[in-house]
Amino acid sequence: MSLFAIFSTAFLVAFSGAIVPGPLLTITIDRTLKQGIRAGPLVVMGHGILEFIAVIAMAYGLGSFLQQGSFARIVGIVGGLVLLWFGYNMLKSGKQVTLETDETAAVSEPAPMSGSVLAGVAGTLSNPYWFLWWAAIGTAFITKSLKFGLLGVMLFFLGHILADFLWLFSVSAAITAGKKVFNDRVYRFIMMLCGLFLILLAFYFIWSGISGNLGLEGM
């Protein structure tokens, strides 16, 4: 994997996870109705704090462990299987998923910026899939990124958090502008496309694990 591949795949995988309905999406919708378009970036800020801690802890707290060949193989296979499961569920739910918003609601009450940041933290910690993602998929990406040291890890983080920012900011903007800009048909198309991408990437990770090309010694 090149540095560009690390950044781009981190972005695409994170985007695929971000668009799935969950605590962060619900919180973003709720906070947007109170704060307007700025809510999305603020929620991502809270989410990003935990993401940054996870990246640093995994890269440098567990760095030597992640670089072991046998562990890297297991990570590749397990991470690929989890990606396959995520991708399948996205394709399955993509046909009827909906971005539910209350278009009649208005920004009726001021809300402190810290409230949205803390809501982003709480929403992240309340999502069990976040822990599963980092235990399997995130570990596999960190293992790949460590080949390039700090630069690789930072590019992975930037690609990852950029996807969260663009998605949740888009949600806030769409709610502010109205559903004519971003309707359920567009949302479902994006879901299906991301589901296909995750399945393809899943097979790549599984093959990398089987062939021993996930860890540093195989790159």
Would you write up a description of this structure?
The protein is mostly helical and 219 residues long. The protein has a domain at 3-83 and 114-178. Helix content is 77%, strand content 0%. The chain contains nine helices and no strands. It is globular, with a radius of gyration of 18 Å. Mean pLDDT is 78; it is low at 102-108.
Structure characteristics:
219 residues; mainly alpha
Could you outline the blueprint of secondary structure elements for this entry?
Blueprint: H1 3-18, H2 23-35, H3 39-61, H4 63-66, H5 69-93, H6 113-125, H7 128-145, H8 149-177, H9 184-211
Which structural class best describes the helix and strand composition?
Answer: mainly alpha
Number of separate strands: 0
What is the mean predicted local confidence, pLDDT? 78
Number of helices: 9
List segments where confidence is low: pLDDT < 50 over at least 5 consecutive residues. 102-108
Our estimate of the beta-strand percent is under 5%
General shape: globular
Q: What is the share of helical residues? A: over 70%
**Rg, nearest Å:** 18 Å
The run of helices and strands is HHHHHHHHH
The biggest sheet, with number of strands, parallel, antiparallel or mixed sense and barrel status, is: none
Distance between the termini: 8 Å
